[in-house]
Design a protein that fits this description.
The complex is a heterodimer of chains A (292) and B (320). Chain A has 292 residues and is of the alpha/beta class. Chain A has helices at 15-35, 42-59, 83-93, 98-104, 134-148, 166-177, 198-201, 207-213, 226-234, 273-291; strands at 74-77, 154-159, 183-189, 217-222, 245-250. Chain A has a 5-stranded parallel sheet with strand order 1-2-3-5-4, with helices on both faces. In chain A, helix 1 (15-35) packs across helix 3 and helix 2 (42-59) crosses helix 9. The model of chain A has no long low-confidence stretch (mean pLDDT 95). A 7-stranded mixed sheet of chain B has the order 3-2-4-5-7-6-12, with helices on both faces. In chain B, strands 9-11-10-13-14 form a 5-stranded mixed sheet, with helices on both faces. The chains are: A alpha/beta (292), B alpha/beta (320). Chain B: InterPro entries: PDH/Transketolase, THDP-binding, Transketo_C/PFOR_II, Transketolase-like_Pyr-bd, Transketolase_C. Chain B: It comes from Microbacterium immunditiarum.
């Protein structure tokens, strides 16, 4: 992002390498979903896996060995139910141990649960889970950065469904009113709510126009195309600009596993050993198809 | 300029919010003030530190969320506005964004209780019950304008969040001579000594309780008045001491629902400690939406005005 790179971010991954990492992230997600008996929000994790990969392995200026570095970019997970995807993406970046996540996830005294808790896991920026809360938090962080004259970014990942919450639009207005060009929202636009396909129940369209009407810089991409994600990150305006940016990433809930894709049954769930093998095979087949 | 006070004088408690924050803004360069369109009391801070003042417009939820974001980044944010809206519209933001990570966000507001002609949309009468239910939250309710400044000052060094409730804040009685009492968050104030019964109260009704005690003194009975301005954490030691020293006779008076506020907090302490009183009366708003009228008229209508306080106190004094 054109600013002083923190340790470990000097060498940036190629698109090919990022695609490999995203594949590995999905594999790791499925493994966790296959070993943990409770529900994992696997549908929305898979839809956001490429975005998480692009952010934690390319876009975000962060240093896993110095999590409180004031120059770090801040990442706010507004769609808190995708916590496990964030934990694993962060583990792959060196923040935590993946084994530690898989072995303790959801268990008593684990730092890793369904929604992120800053108190239990200081490596994450904030506690989220209830939808519609992340963007106001990010606005506060971006304001603070502005006030200090810092040039880091604040990046917030939202689900499109949660933008039904009014608090999101309150924050959208506040961000523009305060000219927070250091704020970037990514919307994981998978077009599914928990119990319905979005447009069946709520008219979101014309979705990008709604953000434009609020004065934001709107970038529309295919959220599973790593080169587009990288390009969107590369093209972000300077942090001292006046306009906050939203990257609306079109995605597929359950992406990469054919029986989960666009399937309302897979908002959250768990895989037994047999279904895990089936899911991993589907993931591999999907990748092969896309590589050809 | 320091604000001076005279005992018994009517002052605007809410004006103290702005002047105190403006003064503290110099000492704390990380102090921010945010408001959802209720900025009149904050003009002094806004004009002195415009870069640390944020009016988000009518958006209580974002206001609290933004404050939490600022606090995550090492700032001390104050959210100031009307409590009926802050305590309810933004309740989940206060719980999830502020209390859950235990951030030093201060919610300071006006319009606690039945503050006049607003109607039930504009009365914060459930707020103390809601705030007391939140883990990590310190809950205060203040009537004396001098104390408003003092509590804000003390709150600056607190780790977690605090809720500071005023009445409408336009006309509040100076209850204490400056320096008369040691004011400390978490400790009640004995506003009037007495031995035969205790009236516990907070905020705007402290003045009324003092009047009631004065009236009853004419009967030759000695009534203690405790300004329990911190509802959470509650001063257990003082409650137990009053049970012992004032013959187990309690009246709890508050401009809040009669259940869920201070009376409930005190009853919890007594039950947990296995203390049986001789008599206990709670005066507050019953389960009704209160309607319109002047503050005093509404208190009379709903059974917690001056006459009711005197009558209830006489009842507990007469109980055997």
């Amino acid at each position: 992002m054109g600013r002083t790179p923190l340790a470990g971010t000097e060498q940036r991954h190629s698109v090919q390498e990022l695609e490999d990492l995203a594949f590995e992230l999905r594999q790791k997600l499925l493994h966790l979903c296959g070993t943990y008996e409770g529900a994992v929000h696997i549908g929305g994790d898979l839809s956001a896996a490429d975005i998480f990969t692009a952010l934690f392995h390319y876009g975000l200026n962060v240093d896993p060995s110095d999590i409180a570095n004031p120059e770090r970019d801040r990442f706010v997970l507004s769609k808190g139910h995708a916590a496990v995807c964030m934990y694993i993406a962060m583990a792959m970046r060196g923040f935590f141990s993946y084994e530690g996540i898989v072995q303790t996830y959801g268990q008593l005294d684990s730092a890793y649960g369904m929604h992120p808790c800053k108190v239990q896991l200081p490596g994450v920026e904030c506690s989220t889970g209830s939808l519609g809360h992340g963007l106001p938090l990010a606005v506060g962080m971006a304001l603070s950065a502005r006030h200090r004259g810092d040039d880091h970014r604040v990046v917030c990942l939202l689900g499109d469904g949660e933008t039904g919450e009014g608090s999101v639009w309150e924050a959208v207005m506040a961000a523009r009113s305060n000219r927070l060009g250091n704020l970037v929202a990514f919307v994981d636009r998978n077009r599914q709510l928990m119990t319905s396909f979005a447009e069946e129940r709520v008219s979101f369209e014309p979705y990008p126009d709604k953000w434009r009407a609020f004065g934001w810089n709107v970038v529309e991409i295919d959220g599973h195309d790593m080169s587009q994600l990288v390009a969107a990150i590369d093209a972000l305006p300077d942090t001292d600009s006046d306009t906050p940016t939203v990257v609306i990433a079109e995605t597929v809930k359950g992406k990469g596993v054919d029986f989960m894709e666009r399937n309302l049954a897979w908002h959250a769930g768990s895989l037994g050993a047999e279904d895990l093998e089936r899911a991993l095979a589907a993931l591999a087949a999907s990748r092969e198809k896309e590589t050809v | 300029m320091p604000v001076t006070f005279t005992f018994g004088e009517m002052l605007s408690a809410r004006s103290v919010i702005g002047s105190t924050l403006a003064e503290l803004g110099a000492d704390y360069d990380n102090l921010w003030v945010l408001t959802p369109d209720i900025g009149a009391t904050l003009v002094e801070f806004r004009d002195t530190y415009p870069e640390r003042f944020l009016d988000v417009g009518l958006a209580e939820q974002a206001c609290v969320g933004i404050a939490a974001g600022l606090a995550y980044d090492g700032n001390i944010p104050v959210v100031s506005g009307m409590l009926p809206f802050l305590s309810m519209r933004a309740l989940e933001q206060i719980r999830t964004d502020v209390c859950y990570p235990n951030l030093p966000v201060k919610i300071i507001g006006t319009h606690g209780g039945l503050v006049g002609n607003g109607g039930s949309t504009h009365y914060a009468v459930e707020d103390l019950a809601l705030m007391c239910a939140l883990t990590n939250m310190t809950v205060t309710s203040i009537g004396d304008p001098l104390m408003v400044g003092e509590i804000i000052r003390q709150s600056m060094t607190m780790q977690g969040p605090i809720y500071i409730r005023l009445a409408v804040g336009k006309k509040d009685m100076v209850l204490y001579e400056p320096g008369q009492h040691k004011v400390r968050i978490g400790k009640g104030i004995i506003a009037r000594e007495g031995t035969d019964a205790t009236i516990f109260t907070h905020g705007t009704t402290v003045a009324q309780a003092l009047q009631a005690a004065e009236e009853i003194a004419k009967d030759g009975r000695s009534v203690r008045v405790v300004d329990m301005f911190t509802l959470k954490p509650i001063d257990e030691e003082l409650i137990l001491r009053c049970a012992e020293e004032t013959d187990g006779r309690f009246v709890v008076l508050e401009d809040h629902l009669a259940y869920g506020g201070l009376a409930s907090r005190i009853a919890d302490v007594l039950a947990d400690r296995g203390v049986c009183l001789t008599a206990f009366e709670r005066l507050g708003i019953p389960q009704v939406y209160a309607g319109f009228g002047e503050d005093e008229q509404l208190r009379d209508k709903h059974g917690y005005g001056l006459k009711d306080t005197i009558a209830a106190t006489r009842r507990v004094l007469a109980a055997s």
